[in-house]
Structure to design on (153 residues):
């Protein structure tokens, strides 16, 4: 499902940003009922909104930095990366989101968002021309970012 489309963010003067949505798609065709793409009205929009307001702490509320197995420096590294996006006024453009959940064999596979087993997603985000994969997970309380890396070609 293509959920968000592109979302170019560009500066307007010295204190504001313009956000366009030329190919936005909220949900599956003819659907105004849940399940819909909650990312645009929820977590990713709030995350990018916090970055656009230079609110690093606000942006980090959408990042799950307390995952088991992460090195002790993970929280500091995430904070440093998000702070750089703010300081450098990076342009974030959201792309495709792929939803996944466990199938009958216990393996994660792509699924439509309507499937109740969906608890993970991967969002492609271009940051100043470089494509990143944001790994998202559904936890109690909503969707959170688990990690990010550059998308392999």
């Amino acid at each position: 499902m293509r959920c968000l489309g592109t979302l170019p963010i560009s500066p307007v003067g010295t204190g504001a940003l313009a956000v366009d949505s030329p190919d936005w798609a909220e949900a599956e065709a003819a659907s105004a009922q849940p399940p819909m793409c909650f990312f645009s009205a929820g977590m990713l929009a709030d995350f990018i909104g916090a970055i656009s307001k230079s609110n690093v702490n606000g942006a980090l509320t959408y990042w799950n930095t307390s995952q088991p197995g992460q090195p002790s420096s993970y929280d500091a590294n995430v904070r440093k990366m998000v702070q750089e996006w703010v300081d450098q006024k990076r342009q974030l453009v959201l792309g495709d989101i792929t939803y996944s959940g466990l199938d009958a064999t216990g393996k994660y596979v792509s699924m439509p968002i309507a499937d109740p087993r969906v608890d993970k997603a991967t969002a492609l985000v271009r940051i100043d021309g470089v494509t990143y994969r944001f790994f998202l997970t559904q936890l109690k309380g909503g969707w959170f970012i688990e990690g990010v890396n550059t998308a392999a070609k």
About this structure: The CA atoms of residues 93 and 126 lie 5 Å apart.
